[in-house]
Amino acid sequence: MLLVDRETMQNIDSYAINEIKIPSLCLVERAALSVMENINLDIRHSFALIVSCGNNGADGLALARNLLALSKDCDIYIIGNKNKASKDFIINYNACKNLTKNIYSIETIEDMNFLRKNLDRVNTIVDGIFGTGLNRPVSGIYANIIDLINEKNIYTISIDLPSGFDANGENNYGTYVDSDLIVCMQILKKGLYEDNYFKDKTVVCDIGLPQIAIEKFINI
Ligand SMILES: NC(=O)C1=CN([C@@H]2O[C@H](COP(=O)(O)OP(=O)(O)OC[C@H]3O[C@@H](n4cnc5c(N)ncnc54)[C@H](O)[C@@H]3O)[C@@H](O)[C@H]2O)[C@H](O)CC1
Ligand SMILES: [K+]
């Protein structure tokens, strides 16, 4: 079983993008579609996609865009400062803005109360808050939203990692999403493999990172 730690995954990602010149937007799109492939769209008809402004969020918005293209009912909730968002996040955000009005920023207590109420109208939550970029304890609005997700008994899919969970399984960053399904990109993160609770809830999907990029950093 091939395993990877956070830093090595980031090295592989950036080598693929910066040296092999694979457009990161292509990787984000493959990631979104790999999540979609793991959703039973016959029973999952309404979605709350909760994202922050990095590439885990970009994956989430690319998924939202694809679900909206299928006329699925999607509410999008954005945490953090969009002005500091990744370019892939912005590209997908601009498309989603033209596909739905149900895009909400979650910043205040009132926003949190709206989210708490509005989550009850969906049967699926998609967690695109943090992936391999998580590098410090979760606090503030991020912690509040993760706790709210866990309060709700709604089927929750996490993109790449449960938000708040350390990819290396070494750091306790506080609260993390109690995912029902984790769609992990390309290589199983070692923290998930070593965690008996999450290991069996994880599927690993190829997003098109070539072997030469992987073998540059991992002896296979
Ligand atoms: N080529 C690629 O990198 C691909 C990545 N994919 C997806 O992208 C994420 C990794 O994205 P990244 O932008 O590096 O970080 P995150 O989105 O995980 O995190 C966002 C951002 O949050 C900040 N941050 C870290 N810890 C905290 C914290 N405790 N509180 C608040 N903010 C925090 C930090 O600045 C991060 O940058 C990867 O998991 C994949 O989902 C694509 O899937 C494919 C290509
Ligand atoms: K996530």
State the helicity in percent bands. 25-40%
CATH class: Alpha Beta
Largest sheet: 7 strands, parallel
Shape: globular
Give the oligomeric state of the chains in this entry, treating copies of one chain as homo and distinct chains as hetero: single chain
The CATH architecture classification is 3-Layer(aba) Sandwich
Backbone structural class? alpha/beta
The radius of gyration over CA amounts to: 16 Å
For the largest sheet, list the strands in their spatial order. Answer: 4-3-2-5-6-7-9
What this model shows, in words?
- One of its GO terms (molecular function) is metal ion binding.
- It catalyses: (6R)-NADPHX = (6S)-NADPHX; (6R)-NADHX = (6S)-NADHX.
- InterPro entries: YjeF_N_dom, YjeF_N_dom_sf.
- Its EC number is 5.1.99.6.
- The chain has one domain (6-216): Rossmann fold, CATH 3.40.50.10260.
- It is 40% helix and 17% strand.
- It has helices spanning 6-18, 24-36, 55-69, 87-97, 109-118, 140-151, 190-193, 196-199, 211-215, and strands at 3-4, 46-51, 73-78, 103-105, 124-128, 155-159, 181-185, 188-189, 202-205.
- The strands form two sheets. The chain has a seven-stranded parallel β-sheet, with helices on one face. Strands 1-8 form a two-stranded parallel ribbon.
- The longest helix is centred in the N-terminal third of the chain and has 15 residues, at 55-69.
- The relative contact order is 0.19.
- The site of ligand LP7C6HRI has 27 residues, from α1, α2 and α3.
